[in-house]
Amino acid sequence: SNKDFLTVNDLEELIQNQNAVELATKLAVHDFDTVIEDLSFLAIDDSLSGYLHNEKRTNRFNEISNEFINLANTRRLYDQIRLLDSSGNELIRVNYENGNARAIPKNKLQNKSNRYYFSLSAKLAKGEIYISPTDLNMENGRIEKPHKPVIRFGTPLYNTSGKFRGVIVLNYLAKIFIDQFKKQMELAPGAGFLVNSNGFYLSSPTLADEWAFMFGGKANFSNKHPEVWKSIKETDSGIIDTSEGRFVYSTTHPYAYAPNASKESRQMRDWKIITASYARTGDLFMIASDLLKF
Q: Most CB atoms within 10 A, among 19, 45, 203, 277?
C-alpha cells in the first residue's frame, strides 16, 4: 500500500542518502570541471597544433611530452594524456603510474582508430568535448589488470583552415571518485551502490558484481531487484520498502553539468546512488521525488 507520510526515521535515512549523493555529485563535478579546463587549455595550445602540422620536429615531441608529464604529475587525476592524429595513431602519450608520469616511447604507441572515444571525439565541432561512459581501461585490446576505471574526455583539433587534424584524450582516473564514493557510503545506512543508467554496478560492496558489462556478465541491479529498479529508473529519488528491505535512492547527473559536453555525452549518463537496508519488512511503498522538497 502506498504511504504518503514519512516517519522521523524515514526522513533521517533519506537525508543521509541525499547527503551522500550530494557529496558524491560534488566530488565528481569538481573533478569534471578540472578535466574540462585542462582539455580546453590543451586544445588551444600552439605547440600541439604545430606538432600535428609537422611531426618531424623531435624537439617539439619532447616539449609536448614534458608539458603532458607536468600536467599529469600536478593534477594526479589522469591515467593517460594523449595526442592522436587524424587516423587515430597515438603521437604522444604520457602514462601516470604510482605517482609518476612518463612518456611512452614512439615504438610502443598504438592505433586507437577502432575505439569508440576516438571516432566520437573526431566528429565533434571545435571546442566541443566528448565524455565517455565510465568503464575499465583497455590496452592492446585487453582489459587492463588490476582493473582501472576511467572516463575519457576527448576534443578534436582543427588547423586554421578548418581541417580535422587529431584528437586530445585525457583518461580521468574514475577510481579516485569511486574510492571516495565507497568511503562516503560507509557512513550511509545499509549497503551503498553506484549504478549506471543500465543498472550495472560501478561500485558495490560485492566487488565481484562490479563492471559486469565489461565481461558480458549478468550482475546487475535490475536483475537482482527488477521491481525496485522499475521505480528507481522512472524517478529521481525516493524510498522503496519491500519484503527484501528498504531502498533509498537518488540520481546524479555529473555529465549534465559539464560545459561544452557534446549532446550525446549529456543525454545518457545518469548514475543512480542506492542505499539498501536488507531484511526489513514493510509494505511496498514508494515516495516520488515531488514529496521530497529539501
A: 203
- Residue 130, φ and ψ in degrees, nearest 5: -95, 130
Task: For residue 287, list its beta bridge partners.
Answer: none
Q: Where are the beta strands (DSSP E) in 132-227?
A: 135-136, 138-139, 142-143, 149-158, 164-173, 191-195, 201-203
* Residues 6+ away with beta carbon under 8 Å from 267: none
The span from the CA of 79 to the CA of 66, in Å, is 16
The residues with which 17 forms a beta bridge, in sequence order, are none
pLDDT, position 241: 87
List the one residue out of 36, 49, 14, 35 whose CA is nearest residue 158: 49
For 142-169, what is each residue's pLDDT tens digit? 999 889 999 999 999 998 888 999 999 9
Task: Write down the pTM of the prediction.
Answer: 0.83
CA distance 269 to 133: 7
Give the CA count within 13 Å in the CB-facing half-sphere of 102: 8
